[in-house]
Amino acid sequence: QVQLVESGGGLVQAGGSLRLSCAASGRALSNYCMGWFRRAPGKEREFVAAIGRSGGNTIYADSVKGRFTISRDNAKVTVYLQMNSLKPEDTAVYYCAARPVPLWDVGVRRSGDDYGYWGQGTQVTVSS
Hints:
The chain is mainly beta. It contains no helices and eleven strands. The protein has strands at 3-7, 10-13, 18-25, 32-39, 46-51, 58-60, 68-73, 78-83, 92-100, 117-118, 122-127. Strands 2, 4, 5, 6, 9, 10 and 11 form a seven-stranded mixed β-sheet that branches. It has a four-stranded antiparallel β-sheet with strand order 1-3-8-7, with no helix packed on it. A hairpin with a 6-residue loop joins strand 4 (32-39) and strand 5. It is globular and about 45 Å long. The chain starts with a strand and ends with a strand.
């Protein structure tokens, strides 16, 4: 079992940047496909980005493509989400999620139902 703790959220002006971190404990991070999701007030949870266990495969939601970058450092058991050119519509609670995968699986997943472990979330607020 893996435990996930997000950090790095905060208040930023439109056009600014933030870097979210997701620290994992309990098991080696390399055993997991990792994802970032978000939930804005009154809206459903939304996929943001995902990265395969080796870091070679990444996918992004169309709404963040070109502005956000997901990365991972398995040695530091941390996954990052670099968010640039932030917009007010990026305001949400951001969640890190993990999906255990076998050694041969370097793929990525965009459905939240595919992830079994979640962090508590970190608030990102973008002011206009």
